[in-house]
Amino acid sequence: MNDKMIQPETDSFFDEIANNFTNVSNDYRTIKISIKSSDWVSTITKLKDEHGLIFFSWLSAVDWTNEVVTGEPPKDKVEECFEILCCLSDIEYGNLVIVSTKIDKKNPTIDSLVDVYVGANWHERESYEMFGIIFEGHPDLKKLYLPDHFEGFPLLKSYELLSREVKPWPGEVDVEAMPDDESENKEQRKEE
Amino acid sequence: MSFGLELLLKVGVVAAIAPAMALGLTILEIKGSAYMQRRPGPLHVGLRGFIFPIAEVLKFFQKEDIIPAQADRSVFKWAPAYIFVSVFGLFVIIPASPTLVVRDLELGVFYLLAISSLSTIGVLTAGWSSANKFSMIGGLRAAAQLIAYELPLILSVIGVVIQAETMSLVGIVEAQKEWGVPFVLAGQLIAFLVFMTAATAEMMRVPFDMPIGESELVSGFLTEYSGIRFLLFYISEYINLFVMCAIASTIFLGGYHIPFLPLDWVNFYGPLVLIGKTFFLGFILILIRWSFPRFREDQLQSIAWKILVPVSLANIFVTSIMKVVF
Amino acid sequence: MVTTIDPENRPFVSEASVSVEIETEGMTLNIGPQHPSTHGVLRLVAKVEGEQIFNVEPVLGYMHRGYEKLAEVRTYPQVTTLVNRIDWVSGFANEIPFMAATEELMEIEVPQRALYIRLILTEMARICSHFVFNGAYPLEIGALTPLFYAMEDRERVLDLIESVTGGRFHPNFNRIGGIKPAAGAGPTTKKDIQDLPIGFYKETQLAMEKILAAADKFEDLVGGNEVFRARTKGVGVLPYDIASSYGVSGPILRASGVKFDLRSTTDYLPYKDLDFEIPIGENGDCYDRWYVRLQEIRESAKLVLQAIDAIPTGPLQTKVPKVIKVPKGEAYVRAENPKGEMGYYVISEGGLGPYRLKIRTASFSNISVLPWILEGVLIPDLLAIMGSFDFVLGDVDR
Lengths: 192, 326, 398
What we know:
The structure holds three protein chains of three kinds. Chain B is an all-alpha fold. Chain B has twelve helices and no strands.
């Protein structure tokens, strides 16, 4: 054992978070807090100031719909919305928290986090161009990756992948079996 | 011989020797740097790659002559000529033996330093007329650098002039013959180091190659030049290297003179000795080029103004005191 | 005739004086997508005055391949192939967090032997990535020779990786539940599990000892060089609080003095059984970032030497069904990529492929600091700072 190893204090940290917030889950060792979109900035500011989570990891969104053009639809019926996720961490023990909120698809706006974490700037620009979510208070909300005249929001489930227009999604396929024996191979080759 | 015939002969000899020396130094650089970097370098072109520079020159001859659309055409075309002329002009005074010299001017050192500063115009106009922002940055850096490093170049030679009591290069070599030791050992070691540093900067080689700055400005002021125009820059860089090393070996290392050989045969062994010493200095500069990163230009300027100029002034001071006292 | 000048009716003399300040306009310099030093197709639009930079705006997206969208139409084993190519310099290390997330959701336990082999290959990928940095960073500063030495030492490690996995840069070696049977001794059509190749132990030992010697050589050759020190010491200082609010991670954060390494805070790979140190820097300048990465090469070589002594015997992969369907759930796993922190947030709805895969890459957050750190520096310093950040465009643009 290395005595320089930092022991992650996840159990006590989970208790700390669970005591201070509601709707906290710890499935698959990922602490997730679900909040209302009106509490977005205040909760995250509280996590930064009081619980020491000063490292801004990422911010992104999920498009929950029931009719999908790419990939597979969700197993059970879901309420159609955008779920915005923000991942924060600290730089001492490795504690990680994911904060999530749901916003309406027809009017996708939410407050910007740029005043709390400066690094949220580019992540919010990316979410804007991929999903169409407007971040109020962002200093310079414009496209990050895509060319200037690109139309549409690519990561929406209703946006079709060009390659899938050409060749549709194969669905459930059995994986190809490995050739079992060398002799079988030789027979196949003799047949050809 | 009549004056015209002699002139023609001398010009012909210089025109033949200069590119040959440049090619020799190119081979030294290409193969030397390759072995320093644990790779063989060009292998298949000629005899184990040693004919590579000739192949490269021929390659440049058959390239298209591209001039950028927005470039200033006449200035763009004339820029390499300035550098070429200034470098060839330096061959006039280099002595290969007491008699094998194009013209032994009495103002040898003065002429040397005057002609070598012509290349600044060439570099600056090349950078400016290319209609390319990166080239312009390279050209401006070059102008600042070349002007800054002329001073240490001049000042370091003055110490030798004081010691030899003459400005002509043949006279300096004869003075070293009388002294018995080359000037580098006779108290001008610091001047030698200053001269070599300033010469490296004048030739814009690493560690002073900010104007070319390969990884930043793609090629600096040379970016838009291709084909024969680039060949002119390339060849004049290596001729410049040869000439500067030749002058350094003449002024500091004793030129064509070696103490123990008979003086009657000096017309034969003089050139060989000079070429040997020049290539030795050239090899040291090549070693330095491939071992050091490059300086930032404010560090470059502070080295010139804050270190080299005071040191060479101190050298002049000490030399003149020693001259008077002894 | 004498003319006298009446002081009341003097002819008009302008009262203008020569103003010393000449108004100059800055220049907009496009350090464009094609440039010898931008590690790929990164475009920086820089407002420059003389040589000093006022404002830098990075323009991204030249390498955007749409990985998150592509992952939604792939099955889980197919996503591994995609994911290899995000940070193409350290191929193997990209797969680890995704595998760990999927295995977390499926609640399966990976056998110890597979974990140790994963650890060895990850550390080798880290050595490869840091050697590329060690060769390319002096090249941007102007030293042309260390590149060749670095590539030569890197070839040793790439040969080892190739002997195990069959691929140098994109091994695609992980399977859900363990690793693929290695490209060992014999044809892969036999039913016996193929394992590490014959002679792997001996060759790894030799190679790692040469790597340790090479790290010493680089410390002398590059770190002891006066010009290198003058170009990198004190240049581009990044304090740790700004770094963490931008999300900068990995060797850059450690060079700013923060002793934080994901290898010691997560347990998806058996780092707890091995002994290693976490190098940190003092000032957060370019020299520290270079030195931290050099130290990490040494630590990785020592880790590999310990790990090959400690590999347990056992199976290489747990039993998983042929068609892998991951149950419904969400998991986020992050790991220490050579460039920084790399994480995958997998949202699974019980299908063949992920419903949403969010890829958190290290270089994207590392570069977001550039506009802050590059204000007021000279152009050569811009290249020194950018080079010390060691980013890869595939990581930035996904």
